[in-house]
Task: inverse folding
């Protein structure tokens, strides 16, 4: 049974290559374009890993992270922040809210895959 | 003692003494008589009682008249002379004694006046010499003070107790309500000489800065200044630099401090905007690069992916590359807009700008620019260096292109801009040539700025165009359009035209040695106290039924009347203003509409007068007016009070008149603007300052002595 990954980003030009990459690596990928959509998708079927953007329309990545963690079984979901902000304070905030790791855009595909793999093993 | 009382006292004593003398003589005479002689005399007395009584009565009446004559022709004029001579040699050398009284007294008065003439001339002469000797140092001092007053930073100098010894215009703009009562806000704060800095800046902030300075001293650091931020009443953010002033005698002790205030509101806003711009730029670049990098890496890693997928990824890469270009352009435009806002432009007359251009064209390019006179003056706002360089650059290119070395320059003022035509004879310039010049960086010999002519023009909202000059002969020309600004914002604030004689009243370094004002004001010398001289205008003379319609006040600090630190507020009496009172004060009822009512103004005035001695002329009336309103206004005047009317009566008991006008005239003060509250307050203040040396000569030096002497005077018995 492949691991289930949820990509949350409102920017299709980032989602498309990322989705392609993860599918090629054998993961089952779902996509959400807003925080609310991501929380609903996670509630419906908890993913193994969430690739979560911070700047999202509506609730931002930080709040989305917190809401996913609050779901039943949310603690076992791995969360990897994808951030274009790249400021130490944002990363510190993300990690304190319960993110497992973060990666700053622009990232290399190999890096994302390596981190995803590490979190899923 | 007033003259009338003095006369009766004098008459009583004289008659008493004469009676006593006659009685003693009569007793001695009676004792030497034989019984027969005594009997004879008693019989004679009884027989001729009527004649003897009339003779004694006439004698006594004659005696009283003689006394009156002596008193009014010799005694009173002599005491007046004494008072007036003191005025001449202490406060008003121009004063001349009146030649009233007997012939002898008139002669004496004439001789005193001759002496006064000589004394005045001598004093003038000495004064001139002293003035000449002081002029240089005074000019330097004034120049420094004027320079300080024009600085863009707020500067305050305080003694160790936090009393303000100096402040400049900018400090007052930053921290105070300009010494004027605005809308009657009781929380308003006043900046003034001798006032405490702690009433405008939180004491803890300053004490913390002073502690920090002490620590830096202890560590023997070179830069001992301390910094803190403070919010101005209008919300501006100020950065305060605290610099200690060391005691001259004890260099390890802080004798005071200088506060330098910088308005950092704009620079903080600028930094915030630039930071936002940078953050947005980074975020957008990172997002686009993420798409590009991820797409390229997928294509490289999976060369045999489906063709639709590959073309989708290629499209994403292309889109993101285009988006990056857009981000760069938008950021550059935003940055340029920002820089244009902060381009240092100053308002200046167009004529001055082009006069400089004409001179520089002649010096640097050996070109002749003939300026046609402007019909009316107009102002523009430019970075003069960039604009001058631009016009010189154009003239240089024009000269090379046309071969001319002489150009004519005409100005025409339009509603929002000024049109400047630089014309020549011969063929006109093609628009393409101008476009080429516009695109090139501005370079002239070894001078230049890293911008093109087009950019400089755009920065200034200016334009340049090829045109044919209007007029009898259609000469080809280059036309500049520069935006106009109104003349009001012409000379930029602050004006840097410093005149040494335009000395502001914002400093008083003698206050350095003044201790903090505490309740033991009573024992303090009058010269050292801080006073608020005030006056009110009212709807009438009854404190119970009439209302205050104006309060005016000025401060006296260290013996100087500070006209700039004034309080001038009209008050809505919330009732009709009788026509009879309008005739006196000239305040029309319309002028009082929408002015604050007394319950709002009184607390503000109390704040203005805080920690000072109140002074006024016939002040009992004004104080009674205040008292009636104290409960309504929720304020109490606990200040000590001095009255110039009573003080004048103290120093000049022999003078008949103690109105403000007559005292002012006696003391040589020119009266301007009387019968406005502020005008009368200023006049009373000047009178008070002239009374101080006279009081000192009469042995009245402290506040307690002045109050006690006032109380004794006759006029103190008047109650309102």
Result:
């Amino acid at each position: 049974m492949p691991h289930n990954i949820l990509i949350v980003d409102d920017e299709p030009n980032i989602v498309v290559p990322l989705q392609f990459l993860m599918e090629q690596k054998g993961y089952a990928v779902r996509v959400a374009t807003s925080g609310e959509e991501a929380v609903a998708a996670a509630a419906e079927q908890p993913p193994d890993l969430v690739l979560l953007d911070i700047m999202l329309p509506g609730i931002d990545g930080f709040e989305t992270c917190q809401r996913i963690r609050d779901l039943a079984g949310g603690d076992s979901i791995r969360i990897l922040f994808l951030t274009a902000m790249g400021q130490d304070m944002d990363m510190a905030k993300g990690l304190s809210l319960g993110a497992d790791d973060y990666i700053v855009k622009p990232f290399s595909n190999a890096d994302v895959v390596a981190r995803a793999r590490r979190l899923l093993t | 003692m007033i003259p009338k009382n003095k006369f009766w006292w004098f008459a009583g004593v004289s008659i008493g003494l004469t009676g006593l003398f006659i009685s003693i003589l009569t007793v001695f005479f009676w004792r030497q008589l034989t019984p027969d002689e005594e009997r004879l005399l008693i019989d004679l007395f009884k027989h001729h009682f009527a004649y003897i009584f009339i003779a004694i009565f006439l004698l006594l009446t004659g005696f009283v008249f003689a006394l009156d004559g002596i008193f009014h022709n010799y005694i009173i004029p002599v005491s007046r002379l004494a008072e007036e001579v003191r005025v001449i040699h202490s406060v008003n050398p121009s004063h001349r004694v009146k030649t009233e009284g007997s012939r002898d007294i008139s002669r004496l008065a004439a001789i005193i006046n001759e002496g006064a003439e000589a004394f005045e001339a001598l004093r003038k002469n000495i004064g001139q010499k002293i003035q000449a000797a002081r002029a240089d140092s005074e000019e330097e001092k004034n120049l420094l003070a004027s320079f300080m007053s024009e600085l863009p930073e707020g500067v305050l100098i305080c003694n160790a107790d936090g009393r303000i010894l100096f402040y400049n215009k900018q400090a007052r703009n930053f921290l105070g309500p300009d010494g004027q009562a605005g809308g009657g806000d009781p929380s308003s704060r006043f900046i003034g000489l001798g006032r405490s800095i702690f009433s405008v800046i939180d004491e803890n902030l300053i004490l913390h800065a002073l502690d920090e300075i002490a620590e830096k001293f202890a560590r023997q650091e070179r830069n001992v200044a301390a910094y803190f931020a403070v919010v101005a009443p209008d919300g501006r953010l100020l950065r305060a630099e605290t610099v200690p002033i060391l005691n001259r005698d004890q260099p390890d002790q802080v004798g005071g401090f200088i506060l330098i205030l910088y308005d950092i509101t704009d620079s903080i806003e600028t930094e915030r905007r630039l930071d936002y711009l940078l953050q947005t730029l980074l975020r957008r670049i990172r997002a686009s690069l993420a798409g590009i990098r991820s797409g390229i890496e997928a294509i490289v890693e999976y060369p045999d992916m489906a063709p639709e997928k590959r073309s989708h990824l290629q499209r994403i890469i292309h889109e993101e590359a285009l988006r990056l270009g857009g981000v760069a352009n938008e950021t550059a435009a935003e940055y340029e807009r920002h820089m244009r806002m902060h381009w240092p432009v100053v308002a200046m007359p167009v004529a001055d700008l082009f006069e400089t251009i004409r001179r520089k064209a002649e010096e640097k390019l050996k070109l002749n620019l003939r300026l046609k006179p402007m019909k009316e003056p107009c102002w523009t706002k430019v970075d003069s260096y960039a604009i001058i360089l631009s016009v010189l650059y154009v003239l240089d290119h024009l000269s090379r292109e046309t071969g001319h070395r002489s150009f004519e320059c005409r100005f025409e003022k339009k509603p929002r801009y000024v049109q400047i035509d630089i014309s020549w004879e011969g063929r006109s310039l093609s628009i393409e040539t101008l476009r080429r010049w516009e695109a090139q960086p501005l370079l002239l010999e070894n001078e230049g700025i890293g911008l093109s002519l087009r950019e400089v023009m755009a920065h200034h909202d200016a334009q340049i165009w090829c045109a044919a000059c209007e007029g009898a002969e259609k000469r080809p020309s280059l036309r500049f359009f520069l935006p106009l600004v109104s003349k009001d914002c012409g000379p930029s604030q602050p004006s840097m035209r410093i005149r040494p004689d335009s000395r502001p009243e914002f400093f008083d370094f003698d206050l350095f040695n003044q201790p903090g004002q505490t309740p033991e004001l009573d024992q303090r010398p009058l010269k050292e106290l801080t006073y608020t001289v005030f006056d009110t205008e009212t709807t009438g003379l009854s404190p119970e039924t009439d209302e205050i319609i104006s309060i005016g006040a000025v401060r006296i600090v260290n013996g100087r009347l500070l006209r700039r630190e004034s309080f001038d507020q009209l008050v809505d009496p919330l009732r009709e203003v009788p026509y009879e009172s309008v005739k006196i004060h000239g305040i029309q009822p319309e002028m009082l509409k929408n002015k604050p009512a007394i319950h709002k103004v009184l607390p503000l005035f109390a704040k203005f007068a805080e920690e000072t001695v109140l002074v006024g002329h016939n002040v009992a009336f004004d104080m009674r007016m205040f008292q009636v309103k104290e409960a309504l206004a929720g304020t109490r005047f606990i200040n000590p009070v001095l009255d110039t009317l009573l003080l004048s009566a103290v120093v000049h008991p022999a003078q008949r008149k103690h109105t403000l006008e007559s005292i002012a005239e006696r003391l040589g003060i020119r009266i301007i603007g009387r019968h406005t509250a502020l005008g009368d307050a200023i006049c009373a203040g000047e009178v008070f300052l002239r009374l101080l040396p006279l009081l000192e000569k009469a042995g009245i030096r402290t506040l307690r002595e002045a109050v006690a002497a006032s109380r004794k005077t006759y006029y103190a018995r008047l109650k309102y």
Observations:
- Chain A has one domain: 4-107.
